[in-house]
Amino acid sequence: MNQEYKHEPKKSEIILTRLIGSTVLQKYYDDFIRELELDRYDVVLDYCAGAGQISSRAARKVTEGKLVYADVSSSWQAFASKKLSKCKVARKCLFHSFDRKLLIGQYDKIIMHFVIHDIDAKYRMAVINHMVMNLKKDGMIYIREPVDDVHGLKLYELINMIEATKVLTYDYVVRESFLIGKYADLRCRLRKEA
């Protein structure tokens, strides 16, 4: 089953994201990275990394590990590559299929920051399952998604997708920010085998 997905942002979206990400959202991104509790030896996947705001910060934490910043957009990938060009632990991955295997079972941490709501509903479950396939047994998937009435998913939709995997446990917290609205943070792990 090959599920193709491509998205190229408009030039205005790139400009706005770069401007906001490098100014008013810097503390937000720094705080997010702190919450991930990255270890310097971690192998990390930033799934749909966009402009590389999170990837560049994560790369500074995983100095002895590896960071893969993956995206479906060649425009975002090019921008993130410039941002991460001097980072020895980072490598890029441009993909257009949710079935592509990105180092199966090799990631300690998978970051999905404001990603799922932008994916067509018919592909969302495939993406979640794809992440499960790429997670080490003791790894964690960090999901941050908008869950307000105007933008994003409903919280129950997000939780239903995680539960539908039948292999993930999770905990979550819902927060609200003046800058980005209401969002949910989920930490997902593989269930312990009996």
Number of strands: 7
CATH-assigned fold name = Rossmann fold
- Determine the number of helices (DSSP H or I, runs of at least 4 residues): 6
Strand order of the largest sheet: 3-2-1-4-5-7-6
Distance between termini?
A: 31 Å
Provide structural commentary.
By secondary structure, this protein is an alpha/beta fold. The protein is built from 6 helices and 7 strands, in the order H-H-E-H-E-H-E-E-H-E-H-E-E. Strands 3-2-1-4-5-7-6 form a 7-stranded mixed β-sheet, sandwiched between helices. The longest helix is centred in the middle third of the chain and has 13 residues, at 121-133.
Summarize this entry quickly:
The protein is of the alpha/beta class. The protein has helices at 11-21, 26-35, 53-61, 74-83, 121-133, 155-164, and strands at 43-47, 66-71, 90-94, 107-113, 135-146, 168-177, 181-190. β1 (43-47), α3 and β2 form a beta-alpha-beta unit.
Offer a few descriptive terms.
single chain, 194 residues, Rossmann fold, alpha/beta, 32% helix
Question: Helix and strand layout, with pairings?
Answer:
Elements: H1 11-21, H2 26-35, E1 43-47, H3 53-61, E2 66-71, H4 74-83, E3 90-94, E4 107-113, H5 121-133, E5 135-146, H6 155-164, E6 168-177, E7 181-190
Parallel strand pairs: 1-2, 1-4, 2-3, 4-5
Antiparallel strand pairs: 5-7, 6-7
Helix pairs in contact: 2-3
